[in-house]
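ERR on first pass: missing label on line 2. Operator R.T. fixed the label and resubmitted. Corrected input:
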Amino acid sequence: MKEKESLFSPRNLKSLTGPLSAGNPVIVLVLGICPTLAVTSQMKPAIVMSLSVMAVLSIGNVIISLLRNTIPPRIRIIVQLTVIAALVILVDQVLKAYVFEVSQKLSVFVGLIITNCIIMGRLEAFAMANKPWPSFLDGIGNSLGFGFILIILSFFRELLGAGTVYGYPVFEKIGLYSTGYVDNGLMSKAPMALILVGILIWIHRSFNKDLIESK
Amino acid sequence: MENIISIFVKSIFIDNMVFAFFLGMCSYLAVSKTVKTATGLGIAVIFVLGITVPVNYLINKYLLTEGALIWLSPSFIDVDLSFLSFIMFIAVIASMVQLVEMIVEKFAPTLYTNLGIFLPLIAVNCAILGGSLFMVNNEFQTVGQATTFGLGSGVGWFLAIIGIAAIREKIKYSNVPAPLRGLGITFIITGLMGMAFMCFMGIKL
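pass 2 clean. output:
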């Protein structure tokens, strides 16, 4: 019997904070790109998406971690998918009941949380080999890292694309339009999201030299 | 017939899975280092989308939508199982991928070795689940239209991954700023390709 680890031991804290920068699921591990790009044209759907992913990932991690010794390895992917799909159905129903307009805006992307590679990746790589509590922290940490990128992207895309922040018309209030400024509509289109992620990776890697890929 | 052609062209170019909806980005970025592997994955995606979209269409039409179970008994007219669609679709996709893998292994061993590990990976490619979910949103009338949509989306994805793989092979010889090397520049190129594809739908800013 190993001695009991405290709830917030350094190792547990690392699984909580690591994914924020050096092990970020989006810009370092390149997981969960589809929702990152698709829902970030405005801040509100981006925040709702981050919270949904957080709910699915943390609960899914705990469930799989509890089941980890009973799942036969050959069918583990099907078991994981079933657990995720059941959780996503719950999230979808909750969203439809309480934030209907946002759920309309997210359309198929709520369903696509099922195939969000962050979730499959964390279940497979972490929850299958760890106890429930560290798995829960890992789930929260990774979804925070994911949400962090989503919020940065959606902030810039909404500000430059529509001149608003969380629906509040900033540029109109400070009177920028009267000086002849025009919103860059391309910002809310698909290609700019990709280019912004590219720039984000550029900035992140200039500060984290060890992540630079060798030629 | 015209309808079928327009669905096909629309799903390849205008509603391109990668450039318009960012679906299947994970494998798109991970497997686009050489044209050869990209071709393998692209063909596998066309294959699986062409099978799963019509199957899910039938399931959705005869089991899940409101009043769909009427063929069993008229008393089921109010039954609406559409909230089960996610779990049904992903189950169909996972089992179809498994089935396709076994069939290909038995009857086309060369294709099987070429596709290699890509076939099982496809189960978690969001382009496949996305194809089925968009199929529900588009409300197609016949199985033919749904199949065309599935194949067209697959071809669109195939074109996208071949394009980026070819560019990445060339860009190896270019002098990219160090922090942008690899992943970063791939994102930016994909963005530029997306802008080119935007011309098909006409740009509204």
